[in-house]
Amino acid sequence: MNITIIAVGKLKEKYLKHAIDEYSKRLSRYCKLNIIEISDEKTPDNASEKDELIIKDKEGRTILSKIKDNAYVIAMDLNGNQLSSQELSAFMANCGVTGNSNLVFIIGGSLGLSVEVLKRANYKLCFSKMTFPHQLFRVMLLEQVYRGFRIINGEPYHK
To answer: What does this chain do (predicted)?
Structure first.
């Protein structure tokens, strides 16, 4: 299986880079992992709703340019479905057996994802109604993907 994570924003904190490196190493036995960072657009403090839409659209066009036609796109979206770790594992396994072995997870910027990216998504996933820092969320997503592969393979993992 091929897993791609497209994330808006650059990772700056060393401790988060170390965590991503660790999960990338762990995932290498289960999948081919590719992480693509998209530069985030600067949002002025007093940005209007129109300004925010323009920023999301610009980020969205860049995101869409990185997605291959045969990709199964999973957008991280507050209005998406919430799954348990076991349900995410079953979802990933089902994708693999139904010919969707190129999964692309998209993490938007601080303003969220554009309408066009959400339209392109095959599935919308929500980890929680809480707000998380985007850089930390990348680690959380990798951990859940790793946990999913461990579950798929019947391997023990902390519950």
So the answer is: Specifically methylates the pseudouridine at position 1915 (m3Psi1915) in 23S rRNA.
